[in-house]
Amino acid sequence: MSSADLTELLRASRPIAPAALRERVRTLAAAPPPASPLARLRTPRLRLRFVVPVLAATAVAAAVAVAVVRPESPRVVAQPGAERAAADAAQRGAATTKQAPSVATQLAPNPPPGAQAPAPTPGRAQDYQAQIGLEVEDAAALSTATKRAMATARDLGGYVVGASYTESGTGSAQLVLRVPTARVQDAIAQLTSLGRITSEQVQIQDLQEQLDALDREIAVLRARIAHVTALLQDPALASERRAALAAQRAGLQRRLAEQRRARSATAQRAAYATIQLSLATKEQAATPAAGSRLDRTLDEAGRILAWEGVALLYALVVVGPFALLGALAWLGLRLRRRAEEDRLLARHSGRA
Amino acid sequence: MTLDPPRQERLGARPSFAAVAEQHLDDVYGYLLYLCRNASLAEDLAGDTFEKALRLWRRFDPGRGSARTWLLAIARTVALDWFRAEERRRRREQTAALPDRHEDAPLEGFGPELDRALASLTAGEREVIALRVVLDLDGEAAARVLGISQTACSTRLSRALKRLEERMIHELR
After folding, report:
1. Could you tell me which chain B residue has the CA closest to the CA of A9?
2. Quick one: closest CA in B to A39, which residue?
């Protein structure tokens, strides 16, 4: 008997359902289907091929909507309150930093001169350091701005500590200027008017306590020297004692001279503020120019999407191991069930 | 104008349960008869299959497969449940004896040689023959009913037919 004969034989002997069964099924099918009490609560079946695109579209739509609705990042400027806080911190002796982010500074024109930098506290010795980044139009503007910056420092009673200028089509210049601390705000106002601000940072460190401590120490040393000098004027003083007192006075005078030098250096530090000015032409500027509103909205949407991606990745990293364990458990159960079914079917060879 | 169930399914319309039951009753019964090789049991299991199918009818999705495949998958689950229950009963009784209510007479419609040859196969071998040869399901549908891959289904069918052929040659001698 060939395979074809066997197939033919099998098909010819295809079983037909008995009439009783047919009648039973017809009766069953004629009855209304039983209503499930949970039918109303049943949620529609979610299909992965629909869920994934819908979730992706929702994420993109949300990012665009947030980017459109969200107000543009305000420019970070020193508020009066913040300025007072900075001054207070400076008075307490703490280092204060004020930084205007480069992106934010590009979104708005420069504020009125002198409005951004915190002022040194009058009557207190302070170490004032500022770093300013400016963008100018081209190489010619760079040259002019560099010259004007150096002139500004001199005009205000300061001087140029160092200057570096590079130009070949595009260009940049770095200047280190020292101006009297009392006129630092004028200096910053004039310097920031030379171009578009790309970055700005101010650090103020209080030196007054240090200066006061030096003054006290100098006063003490002077008093001790005067006392030793008075002792030395006694004619009845023994020669060894005189020699010892003379040596002590010499030591005190040396220490007094050191403290005077230290005070002078500290006072000099407080007298002049240091301004590091970086100038660059547009092509050289580190930060890109601000685009249109549409560009910024798209950028913002891109950033939000990137954050959504990060959040998704984080969720995957956290949930991933559990999902993997679950999948493995499900696979194991499925394999076990299939093996058990195969055993069952292999065992039932004859009539059940 | 009413459409026949297969055409309705092709068009994406949901057929009525009565129409589907009428259409595929012989398929379900035939499959179960091959699987358990007992007419009265196959009849019982077919009835149970349609009862279960009616309960689950709301969940049937014509887009995911034909009603015939869906019914045969339910029939297989019902039969396996019965086999499991039977195994437990046998273990409880500590006997390997076959159930009393199932007679050992040749099945109606089968020749004695084919009947004996089929009896020598396992239920797993008989079910793949029933699905692929007798009911003429395609490889994908049969594999879906059996819960295995198409390749595994083809391999299982090839082995089962080879064994049946050998047994038939032996029976005809």
Report:
1. B114
2. B58
